[in-house]
TrEMBL record:
The chain crosses the membrane at residues 83-106, 113-132, 181-200, 319-338, 350-370. The gene is LOC124296614. Residues 1-17 have a biased composition (Polar residues). The keyword Nuclease does not apply. This is Odorant receptor. Pfam families: 7tm_6 (PF02949). Belongs to the insect chemoreceptor superfamily. Heteromeric odorant receptor channel (TC 1.A.69) family. Keywords: Cell membrane, Membrane, Olfaction, Receptor, Sensory transduction, Transducer, Transmembrane, Transmembrane helix.
């Protein structure tokens, strides 16, 4: 018995040692394979088209800017964020009242009144936009979560050697690049304009010999308050207050507009991807169940895009309505100030109000361009369904393509106040209206001067 045990113990030890070696080899092979996968992933990130395929990258500085002013829709609602938002809203209200007071005090002089309204109108619109945007956080949160899931699904499902995945990724990347360019250019124009309005009063006060004079104690905004603010230290306090709130207004103004443009272009990218899926609908060597599964996916995806666009339009139509009304007046007043500065050779006023005019034109143009692009992409779904090989499909499946074409006949639009569609033809008519108002204002100024 003992000899049998002694003879068997070495074999058992050899088997256990063999298992340990095999387990060690399996662990090393699994580790090396995973290391190769990680290395391949690192190499994938070096590819140019993969750099922008991230939700955070697609949002760019919009997410950071709106988070600073407690307005990012995906931000968790806390009492601290509520307090910060209420503080900014109260500051906006004070600035609006100050700008309107400055316009009232300048009512006897047409040129001063136009210059004051040229600042009061955008400040008022930004304050209204900031308040209306807060009421639409929940629907925007749902849209942004869907956008994030779209990017995550593409990052998980696509591979380097899959041409369809590469094309989908390129479509999403290209549609994410345009809003980022708009955000950078738009933010630069608005920031430079605000810096000029901030520096001008300080430069005039420093260069003035009599700092107690009324013209030497102007604030960045052409505002008036019901208390003496032209003496130290109240003047310095109000100056810092308006500079700080002006920076917050710049972030709110550019962030909200850029968020709208980013969501619209993302929906346009999804419509283009859906259009390519419809045009390349394969019928060869496929069962009817597989065809039905693809048609079901196309219908559900199309319905999701339509519902998202409808929810976006519902969230922004009041904001766009205020922008449309104020934008027409803003272009008229800023253009009048630019023409007056050209006649009087006032370079500083020409640059400041020229940038204000550029800002208003750029804002309305990108709204109109995005709305027009969304409508055109939605209409192309009908063309794609017509171009597909529906005639090779079974009758039950081909009738689904007819329903898709019927549904795509109703345009996907972005409206201002539910009555004016944001499109390029309407943008040209708006510019014509602003120019006609400008000609009337010029005629009034000529009569007053005579």
């Amino acid at each position: 018995m003992s000899s049998y045990t002694d003879n068997e113990s070495p074999s058992r030890s050899q088997k256990s040692g063999t298992k340990m070696l095999k387990g060690k080899d399996d662990f090393q092979s699994n580790f090396s394979s995973r290391f190769r996968d990680i290395k391949n992933l690192r190499q994938i990130h070096k590819i140019p088209w993969i750099k922008e395929t991230s939700f955070n990258t697609a949002m760019g500085g919009v997410r950071h800017g709106l988070s600073l002013i407690a307005s990012w829709p995906m931000m968790m609602e806390t009492w601290r964020m509520t307090v910060i938002w209420l503080f900014y809203a109260a500051g906006f209200f004070v600035c609006v009242c100050g700008c309107l007071g400055g316009a009232i005090t300048a009512r006897k002089d047409l040129q001063r009144l136009v210059a004051a309204l040229g600042q009061a109108i955008p400040v008022t619109v930004i304050a209204i936009k900031y308040g209306l945007f807060k009421t639409q956080v929940k629907p925007l949160n749902q849209i942004l979560k869907s956008m994030e899931s779209d990017w995550e699904s593409e990052n998980l499902n696509s591979r380097r050697d899959d041409p369809e995945a590469i094309r989908r990724r390129e479509i999403m990347t290209n549609h994410a690049r345009v809003p980022r360019i708009f955000f950078n250019v738009y933010t630069s124009v608005v920031t430079i304009c605000w810096i000029l309005f901030t520096i001008a009063p300080a430069t005039k006060r420093i260069s003035s010999r009599d700092q107690s004079a009324p013209n030497a104690n102007k604030l960045p905004l052409n505002s008036w308050y019901p208390f003496p603010f032209s003496h130290s230290p109240i003047y310095q306090i109000m100056y810092v207050f308006e500079v700080f709130l002006g920076n917050v207004m710049v972030i709110a103004h550019t962030g909200i507009d850029s968020l709208l443009v980013t969501i619209i272009f993302h929906l346009c990218g999804q419509l283009e991807i859906l259009r390519s899926c419809i045009e390349e609908f394969r019928t060869e060597e496929r069962s009817e169940e597989m065809m039905w599964a693809d048609v079901k996916f196309i219908v559900k995806r199309h319905e999701w895009i339509i519902n998202s666009a409808r929810s976006l339009e519902k969230s922004f139509n009041k904001i766009l309505f205020s922008q449309l009304l104020a934008g027409t007046l803003h272009i008229c007043l800023a253009g009048f100030s630019v023409l007056q500065a050209m006649e009087s050779n006032n370079t500083s006023v020409f640059v400041k109000f020229g940038l204000l005019l550029t800002m208003a034109l750029q804002q309305l143009f990108i709204y109109s361009l995005a709305g027009d692009y969304l409508t055109s992409q939605g209409t192309l779904i009908r063309v794609a369904a017509y171009k597909a090989t529906w005639y090779k499909l079974p009758p039950s499946v081909s009738r689904s393509f007819l329903l898709i074409m019927i549904r795509a006949t109703k345009p996907i639009t972005l409206t201002a106040g539910k009555f004016s569609v944001m499109s390029l033809p309407n943008f040209t008519s708006l510019i014509k209206s602003a120019v006609s108002y400008l000609s009337v204002l010029r005629a009034m100024n000529t009569d007053n001067s005579n």
